[in-house]
Every structure is written in structure tokens, then in C-alpha cells.
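This part of the workshop introduces the protein records we will be handling. To make this concrete, we reproduce a full record directly below.
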Amino acid sequence: MSKTKVIVVGASHGGHQSLLELLNKYNDLDITLFEAGDFVSFMSCGMELYLENSVTGVDDVRNFEPKIFTDQGVNVLNNHEVKKVNADKKTVTVLDTKTNQEQEYQYDKLILSSGVVPNNLPVPGADLENVYLMRGYDWATKIKAKLEDPSVKNITVVGSGYIGIEAAEASIKAGKHVTLLDVIDRPLGTYLDSEMTDILQKHLEEKGVKVAMNAHIESYEGNGSVDSVKTSDAEYPSDLVIQAAGVKPNTDWLKGVVDLDDRGWIKNNEYLQTNLPDVYAIGDATLAYSVAAEKKVPIALATVVRREARYVVEHLFEKIPAVPFGGVVGSSALSVFDYHFAATGLNSFTAARSGVEIATDFYQDTLRPSYVPNDKGNTDVYVQLAFDPATHRLLGGAVLSKYDITAQGNVLALAVQQRMTLEDLANADFFFQPGFDRQWSLLNLAAQHAIKGPKF
């Protein structure tokens, strides 16, 4: 009797978790994973660590080595780009990019985790040499070489989200002059509210980053190789441009076969099924159900796709699963030089984008009791809470400090997921020990503060 054929498209977090779950749950499958790139499975979220010489080697910055799975009978095929889904035949057409030959592969179940591709700004000069993207193994090694090149003195980073901040910090630490540009009004403005971004922007500038927001890029200038970035009101010398200006779903190859929305996101239902029988879609190329927003929104995080992969495999052979996918909160963290923050759920920007009314409250304090001096670790700490103004249900939040309190972000994520209120958090029973905390814990105090006077 032939084995059930399962094909997984994409070798990043979604593909990795799918293989783990398939092997753990079933023992009678013929599993094939296709990866378009040469290197399996580079972890772009570890790129800054690589650029700052904080990893064992670039080849180790990956989710898995193929041998881990090929030793268990999985077919892991890199340099194989899936070009088409043939739903009528239940096959995929795959291009071997080394031989330029196409072949069809049969599937019984197909899991799409095709991910996203970085935006290359459509401005004059985008094709000049030394205009780079910051995603994937090849770009990581190219950027690393430029950071080590003494002739590269001026680096312009386009985009002030997580990736752009990481690029700017790595470049500063490599001794470069760095300009950070974005069309929005403040760095990290889609991730944090203004009270926290004000702190971080000042810190970036103190560390030597030239921060230029509301910057509308008109062109990259140069003769063969870039030498400046021209905006509507300034021009910045640039030996290297690192573009980190967002992403778009890698779904052009699915048009006309798998249902997409008007921005190219794969449409899937509450069971993560597409319009095609036995075809599932997970990860960054889809919209994820947000517990806080109570609707599908873009949440491009490894933690999201891994939970989706686990759900899909758990219910892979159920026509209608017993329960729908429960959704996610969407949590992340980042270091910005000396500061560390974690954010979860909604903030003012994402709430407005999702059409969700929220109230917010910003709380500042010290980590420990006042009798502990600053030079003994009693640093300033900041908490932002987002909540429903009518019910006080927690919808999001963030923590920030020069001391690493990012684990508090996980507490907030759990509170949002469990639909706790400000009152629940204000009275939650957390430990006290003056070497770590206050008599009322930080999140207790932040919630108590929010109850007294929310800011709308």
C-alpha cells in the first residue's frame, strides 16, 4: 500500500515545524519539502547576531540542517522552486534551478509556507551596485563583507522597523556612519507607541545614528554604484544602502489558482484551509487571526507560523476539524543598543489599522525599591498597556528598560490571550524580592496606574 504523500513548500519556520509535527504524529507518510534557495533554512532573525560576530558561524544560523530530516526519510530538496499548483491532478510543478528542468510531483496533502519577499523600492537607481536587501543567507554574507570593508564609510538604512534597527546597530558597531530613513514619523512607529519610540529615537541618536523620519526617497544616485540617497528635502552620502522597507507575500505564482486577497495574501479559513481541497496555507504569506483584534491581520512572526503548522498537522486528516485554529497574540522583542523591549498584541497603530478602539496608558517607575541605588541595578522601567476602554480587557502592551525585562512581555501576552482585564492584572499574585522587583510587581503597578487614569 502506497504511503500518503505530503508536500511542504518552504523551509523556514513553517516548513521546519511542519516536518517536526508530521514525523512526530504519523509514521506512514511520504514527505517532501521544497526550498527555492540554495541554503536550508537560514534564520534571518539571527542576522544581526551574525553581523556582530555573535554566532559560531553563518552556516549555523539556521533552523535545521537537511540531514536531520533526510536521515528520517524526508525528501529535502533545495534549489527547487515550486512554480504551480495543479489542483485538478493534485500535483505541483517544480523547477530545479540548477538544471533548469521542470518536474511534477504528486501530493495528497499540500502545506504552503511560501513566506514573504523583501520590498525593493521602485525608485530610480534601485538597480545600482551596493543597494542591498536584508533578508536571507546571501544578503547576510554580502552585508557582512561590506561592514568589514574599510572603504565603506557611509551606510544608509531604509526602513526603521525591526530589521532596519538591527542593520543600523550592526553598522554603527562596525564603525560606520549611519543614516536611518523612513517615510513614517518615528522609528519603530508601527510596533510601539510614541512614549517609547521617543526614548529609543533619542538613544539611537546618542549612539551616533542620524535619524531622518518623514523621509520620502526620490532616488538612489550614483554611476554604476550608489553614492547617495536623495529624498524630497535632503541628500545623504551612501557607500552602501540597506533596504529594510517591509515585505510582500511570495504568492505571485499562486494567482488564479489559490484564492488571494487584493494585496496578495493567501486566503484561508478558520481551519487554515485554502479554496483547494487538501491544500493548507500558513505563515507570513497569510493573515493570522488576532486574539486581540478578533479578526485576521498581518503578523509576520516565527511564533505564529509554528503554532499554525502544529494545528494543521494535528488536523491534517480531518475534513472539518473539531475546533478552529485558536488564533495568536503576536509577540516580539528587540534590543536597541542598551535598551530592550518586548511588545505584544495591539498598539495605537495596529489598533487603528484594524479598526479597534483602544485606550492606552504609559507607566514609568524603577525596577526595585527606592533604597536600591541605580548603580546596583535599579534602572528605569517603562510599561505601555492597551485595553478596551469599556471593559478594561487587555488588548496589548509593551515593556522597555536598559535592564532586560523582556520576559514581562510574555506575561502580558498570556494576559491578552486569556482575555484578562486591567483589574485582573492589577491584583495578579506575583512574587516580591527586592533584588528583583517591587512590593507590587511592575505589571501590577502599571495596571493599577491605568485604572486610575487611562489616556485616550
User: Anything to note?
Assistant: The chain has a mean pLDDT of 96. Residues 19 and 93 are 21 Å apart (CA to CA). The radius of gyration is 23 Å. The longest helix spans residues 13-25.
